[in-house]
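Good morning,

Attaching, inline, the backbone tokens for the sequence recovery test we're adding to the shared suite. The designed sequence is right after.
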């Protein structure tokens, strides 16, 4: 009685599978290493701001306090720089920054920059258009206007990346209640 010569195929398959699995494991290990390396590496944030911009400087300090290395480039015309870097004018704010291939426009909170760098979506970057009161670098006694951090894709489409609700500062009561004016 002849048997099917199945022995070879039976042994070949698991060994091929082992090789594949070993390759896969190796690939996953290098992915894990790369993922681990990213947060510790704290990529440099290149900021383009006008030398006279105070809130831009405050935002730089906010990033540094969050652990980012920041390289400040003083530019006379931030609108021209924004255009050169490719951030659409309609999302414009007072400064533009570049980090790990992304653009950051305006007073983007450091925690959102970290989330961007951890999730690495296909995008141009993040923007906080205008200069909302209460965003990092725009502090005003605990008051915050509601604002959104937008994720801008390469075609200039925006979607909401993070939302910050309005905060009313606790109004300190005057020691004596103001009476009617005489
Ligand atoms: Cu500003």
């Amino acid at each position: 009685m002849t048997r099917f010569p199945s022995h070879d195929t039976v042994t070949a398959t698991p060994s091929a599978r082992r090789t594949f699995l070993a390759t896969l494991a190796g690939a996953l290990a290098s992915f894990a290493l790369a993922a681990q390396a990213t947060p510790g590496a704290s990529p440099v944030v290149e900021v383009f701001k006008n030398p006279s911009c105070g809130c831009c400087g405050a935002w730089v300090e906010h990033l540094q306090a969050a652990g980012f290395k920041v390289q400040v480039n003083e530019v006379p015309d931030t609108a021209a720089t924004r255009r050169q870097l490719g951030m659409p004018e309609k999302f414009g704010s007072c400064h533009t920054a570049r980090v790990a291939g992304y653009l950051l426009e305006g007073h983007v909170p450091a925690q959102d920059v970290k989330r961007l760098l951890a999730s690495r979506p296909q995008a141009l970057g993040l923007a906080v258009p205008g200069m909302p009161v209460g965003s990092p670098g725009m502090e005003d006694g605990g008051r915050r206007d509601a604002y959104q951090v937008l994720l801008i894709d390469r075609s200039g489409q925006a979607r909401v990346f993070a939302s910050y609700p309005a905060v009313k500062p606790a109004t300190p009561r005057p020691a004596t209640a103001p009476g009617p004016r005489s």
